[in-house]
Amino acid sequence: MFEFVRGTIDYITPEYIVVENHGIGYQINTPNPFIFQLNETYTVYTYHYVREDISALYGFKLRDEKSLFLKLLNVTGIGPKGALAILASGNPSQVIQAIEDEDEKFLVKFPGVGKKTARQIILDLKGKLGGAVPSIAPDLFNHESHEEKDKQSQALSEAVEALKVLGYAEREINKLLPKLEKEALTTDQYVKKALQMMLK
Question: Where in the numbering of this chain does the Helix-hairpin-helix DNA-binding motif class domain appear (predicted)?
């Protein structure tokens, strides 16, 4: 019904903001109202939630946050309040990562999310958020990026084996790993880099 409201922030409370647009003040529930500044102009992406006993506007700074909110609303056991609490963490990419990794322990930290609901979130949303929220967690759904990381990981493993064959102790090699992991190199380059570091 309302895709967005563009206007000036007239009022801020811990629960909602009031956006003034052409003399009308829209009360909009947001995950964190205090990310908005009074008297500043914003585009707030809105969702009009209507049930028998409630009619409310929910709003977000990013369109993708709104998409994630709508996806969460489709999960059995999660209402607008619960979905807002999850988005209020301020880091939707962490939420998406937890869903993709099936990290129930992370999800149950949110108010109103028990083990059963966490399981339901994973069941309903895992693998289905790439198209809905591309800007929030682009790397998570970038398969090329994952392939590169896999190649890098394999090259490093091969380099470690080569160093062991050369007679270096595992303890010595392990000391170098944190620095080597930060680099994207071929197996040969990893071996050369490790040898240089050993000989320093």
Answer: 70-89, 105-124
- Architecture of the domain made up of 63-140: Orthogonal Bundle (1.10)
Q: What is the full per-residue pLDDT of the chain (200 aa) written as tens digits? A: 789 999 999 999 999 999 999 999 999 999 999 999 999 999 999 999 998 888 999 999 988 899 999 999 999 989 999 999 898 875 778 888 899 999 999 999 888 899 999 999 999 999 888 766 655 655 554 544 445 556 678 888 888 888 888 888 888 888 888 888 888 888 888 888 888 887 76
Which residues make beta-bridge pairs with 16?
A: 29
The CATH number of the structural domain formed by 4-60 is 2.40.50.140
How large is the C-alpha radius of gyration of the chain? 24
Cβ–Cβ < 8 Å for 126, 101: no
| DSSP E strand boundaries for 31-139 | 41-51, 54-60
Query: Which of these, 113, 24, 28, lies nearest to 77 by C-alpha position?
Result: 113
